[in-house]
Amino acid sequence: MPKLDVIQEVQLRAQLQSLIQQHRDLDTAITSLAETGTGDQLQLRRLKKMKLDIKDKIQTIENMLIPDIIA
Fold it and tell me: What InterPro entries does this protein map onto (predicted)?
C-alpha cells in the first residue's frame, strides 16, 4: 500500500473520528430502542446493520493508518 501524505492522513483521521461518533450514536440508539421496547425488529436490524457497516469502515481506515509491521 502506498504511503499516505500528510493531507490524506489528516482527512482519514477526521473521517475516522466521525465514524467512531456515528458508531457510538447508533449503539446508544439501539440500546435505547431495545430497552424501551418501542422499536420494531426491522428498525433494530437496520440500525445494527448500519453499525456493522460503520465498524467495517472504521477497521479499513485504521488499517490504512497503521502501517504493517513485518515480523
Answer: DUF465, DUF465_sf
For residue 22, give the amino acid letter. Q
Which residue in this structure is represented by grid cell 440500546? 31
Contact 61, 12 (CB under 8 A): yes
Kindly list the distances between the CA atom of residue 53 and the CA atoms of 20, 40, 50, 66, in Å, as whole numbers in the listed order.
12, 20, 5, 20
Which residue carries 449503539 as its cell?
Answer: 27
Q: Would the CA dihedral through 25, 30, 36, 38 be positive or negative? A: positive
For the chain, how many structural domains are there in total?
Answer: 1
Judge whether 17 lies within some domain: yes
In a domain, 14, yes or no: yes
Whether residue 32 is predicted with pLDDT greater than 80 in this model: the reply is: yes
Task: Give the position of cell 472504521.
Answer: 58
Domain region containing 34: 6-64
